[in-house]
Write a structure and sequence with these properties.
Elements lengths: L22 H14 L3 H15 L5 H11 L7 H9 L4 H23 L5 H14 L4 H15 L1
Length: 152
């Protein structure tokens, strides 16, 4: 392993890359560092991320995840620490957030169309809402709506 619990780098050495930069790229890296107030490693990773994105080697989701990750400024303030904790720490976390947002939108549509839905569709969404009631706020609203419809 390279790095420690605090560095955020938990990759094996096989993922490491030692680069010898010509002076022009060294100056460009220093400019990224100063302009964005980043560590040398983060400045380099941000530049690589942007380059890979422009070369169409990274998808939009991965690009945004890594830009957010490597744009975290150098600072010891509590604001920066809170911001870091609020951000997803992996692509899996980003995908989970996207799934939750999609379910939230789906449940909103279900709420507005509940009365016109067939019973089979209502049952499908009830099962989905039950499975997600602790994760997605609108899931509980769907369950409440169905409970109200059953009681009526």
């Amino acid at each position: 392993m390279v790095g420690n619990a605090f560095s955020g780098n938990h990759q094996s050495k096989e993922h490491g890359l030692l680069l010898y930069l010509p002076p022009e790229l060294t100056l460009a890296l220093a400019k990224v560092q100063v302009d964005h107030k980043l560590s040398r490693s983060r400045a380099g990773l941000l530049a690589l991320t942007e380059g890979f994105s422009k070369l169409a080697c990274l998808g939009e989701l991965e690009h945004q995840f890594f830009v957010d990750r490597y744009s975290m400024k150098l600072s010891g303030t509590a604001e920066c620490a809170a911001e870091a904790l609020a951000k997803p720490h992996s692509l899996v976390d980003v995908e989970k957030q996207n799934d939750i947002q999609k379910l939230e939108a789906d449940f909103s549509n279900v709420l507005s169309q509940w009365q016109s839905m067939k019973v089979k569709a209502q049952q499908y969404w009830l099962k989905k809402a039950e499975a997600n009631k602790g994760k997605v706020p609108n899931a509980q609203l769907v369950l409440d709506l169905a409970q109200g419809a059953v009681q009526s």
